[in-house]
Structure formats: C-alpha cells, structure tokens
Amino acid sequence: MDKLTDEKIMYEVQHGQLSAMTELFDRYHVPVYNFFLRLTMDRSTSEDLTQNLFYRIIRYRQSFSTTAGTFKSWMYQMARNLHADHCRNKQRMAAVERQTDSFEDIADLKHGFEESDFKKLKNALSALGSVDRELIVLSRYEGLKYADIAKMKNMSLGSVKVQIHRALKQLRHFYFNQENDR
Question: Which family does it belong to (predicted)?
Fold first, then answer.
C-alpha cells in the first residue's frame, strides 16, 4: 500500500479530518524537535516550540497551498517564524548562542555517531552565527533543497548556495581547530 504524501494528508486536514494530522506529527515531530534544538540548544524550549508548531499548523492549515511549495518547506518556514518570534519575545538570541553546555540531542535513528565526533560537531555548529547555523540545519540536518531554503528566506538560489558554502567552510574551520586544540 502506497504511503500518502504529506500534501495529500494536509488536504485531508484542510477539509476537516484533523485526525489525519497525527500522521504528519508522527513523521515530523522528531526532525522538528531536532531543528529547534539545534537552533535553541535548549530541550525544554525545543519541546515547547515543537508543540506550538503543530498547533500553528492546525490553526493556519487553510493557508497551505501546494502551488507555493511542499508541505515540508511550508512547515519549516512556519518553524523558522516561530523560532524568530521566540527569540524576539524572549530576547534570548545572545543567550542561546552562549548556551552550548546544555545542548543535548536525540541520536539519529538511522546513523550512529561517535560521541566525541558528535560533541565536536555540536561545538563547531554552536560557534557559527545564527544565520549560518540555521542554513546548515535546514540544508544538512533537515534535508531541505536549496531552492526551498531560498524561497523561505526570500533570497536568490545563488545567494543561498554561496552562504551555505561559506557556512560549511566556517564549520569545518571550527571543527578542525578543536582537533588542533587537543
């Protein structure tokens, strides 16, 4: 039996079958939680933001349109907006960037990591600026296409490619400088 696409499930949700939202929650609550965790570096805040995101999806379900993109890109745009609102409201952006010690993560369900490598990657990721970190999280952790990210951030595709290239270069620099510090 073929699995329903996200867009078909969202169509059902838009037409009053709110129980269909359970499937989208099952598909995305862990990736969305990890998205928020990588941006906020706080478990409790990430749990709250994840919960709020799914409330917003239900609340604004009528605004979703397949002509504007995929469900996944629409959902991550909403997640970005929610994170920005959170930072603005709490004025935590500066504090979030300093909170590397409380950064915990859910292990990737498909791939294992060496704990020391993962910690070095987390430290390198947290050393990036918020814009670069968000681009890497969206492209590398959440698997969004550059075109989707460009649409989300209202940027050209070329600018997104250049910024991600520079962010990855900087991430590599931070990662390997930790190697040299040992």
Answer: Belongs to the sigma-70 factor family. ECF subfamily.
